[in-house]
Amino acid sequence: MAKIVGIVTTVKDSVAGGAPIFIAKDRTDLQKVSHLLEKVLDCAAHEVHPDMFIIVDRH
User: Fold this and answer.
1) How far apart are CA 47 and CA 53, in angstroms?
2) Which of 24, 29, 57, 59 has the most CB atoms around its CB within 10 Å?
3) CA distance 31 to 9
4) What is the pLDDT of residues 8-43, one digit of tens each?
5) What predicted TM-score, i.e. pTM, was given to this entire model?
6) Known InterPro entries for this protein (predicted)?
7) What is the domain range of residue 29?
């Protein structure tokens, strides 16, 4: 079962919920943080919008 373990966005007011939310300063930072979390958490980063990635654990 897949679980969203984090959300990375550049638009602070666009997300809410129970998963940790990481605010990036721009698109470059968004991609950098998303891919770093993907590696550190052994998860998958998925772009759902140009300003948002979700970090998903599929284990």
Assistant:
1) 4
2) 24
3) 9
4) 999 989 898 899 999 999 999 999 999 999 999 999
5) 0.91
6) YpzH (IPR054055)
7) 3-57
Q: How many domains does the chain have?
A: 1
Residue type at 8 in one-letter notation:
V
- Tell me what pLDDT residue 31 has: 97
- Amino acid found at 19: A
Closest CA relative to residue 16, chosen from 4, 27, 25: 4
Q: Return the pLDDT at 8.
A: 98
- Amino acid sitting at position 12: K
